[in-house]
């Protein structure tokens, strides 16, 4: 009978469940009527404020590393995304400049366009620059 109990416990353990089989009822050549008690996992340490603070510092460091890794990505792709973002944002506001014109403005070139729309591009680029820092 002990072998049957251990077999059921192994099956439950492999299924990712922590249980303790207390009794098995033998019925007609097989086992039936399994009584299972859940066991509560107790970690080998206690959660202290120091541990919580250390985990918070680790999470913050991981976030900083992930952010710096994103910034270190392909600069051409970042530039293209910034131009598309500025174009889309300003188009919603009624700016009629094309992506090519926005690219020229960001490159410091002069274009023929309403001064207000050119200034909107410069302001949006400045705002996104501040967000990236």
Provide a descriptive summary of the structure in words.
The chain is of the alpha+beta class. The protein has three domains: 2-38, no CATH class; 44-72; 74-132. The chain has five helices and two strands. It is elongated. The termini are far apart.
Write a brief structural summary.
This protein is an alpha+beta fold. The chain has helices at 2-14, 49-71, 75-92, 99-106, 115-132, and strands spanning 19-27, 30-38. Strands 1-2 form a two-stranded antiparallel sheet.
Largest sheet: 2 strands, antiparallel
In one word, what is the shape?
elongated
Order of helices and strands: HEEHHHH
Q: From the structure provided, what is the oligomeric state, counting identical versus distinct chains?
A: single chain
> Structural class per helix/strand content?
alpha+beta
Please indicate the count of domains: 3
Low-confidence stretches: 21-29
Instruction: Give Rg in angstroms.
Output: 32 Å
What is the helix content? 55-70%
* Strand segment count: 2
Q: How far from one another are the termini?
A: 68 Å
Output the number of helix runs.
5
Task: Describe how the helices and strands are arranged.
Elements: H1 2-14, E1 19-27, E2 30-38, H2 49-71, H3 75-92, H4 99-106, H5 115-132
Antiparallel strand pairs: 1-2
Helix pairs in contact: 3-5
Keywords:
single chain; 133 residues; alpha+beta; two-stranded antiparallel ribbon; 5 helices; elongated
């Amino acid at each position: 009978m002990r072998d049957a109990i251990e077999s059921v416990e192994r099956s439950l353990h492999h299924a990712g469940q922590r249980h303790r089989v207390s009794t098995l009822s033998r019925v007609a050549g097989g086992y039936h009527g399994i009584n299972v008690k859940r066991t509560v996992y107790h970690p080998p340490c206690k959660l202290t404020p120091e541990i919580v603070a250390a985990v918070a510092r680790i999470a913050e460091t991981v976030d900083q590393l992930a952010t710096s890794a994103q910034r270190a990505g392909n600069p051409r792709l970042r530039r293209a995304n910034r131009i598309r973002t500025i174009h889309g944002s300003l188009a919603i506001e009624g700016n009629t400049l094309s992506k090519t014109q926005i690219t020229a403005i960001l490159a410091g070139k002069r274009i023929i366009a309403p001064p207000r729309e050119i200034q909107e591009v410069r302001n949006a680029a400045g705002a996104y620059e501040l967000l990236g820092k």
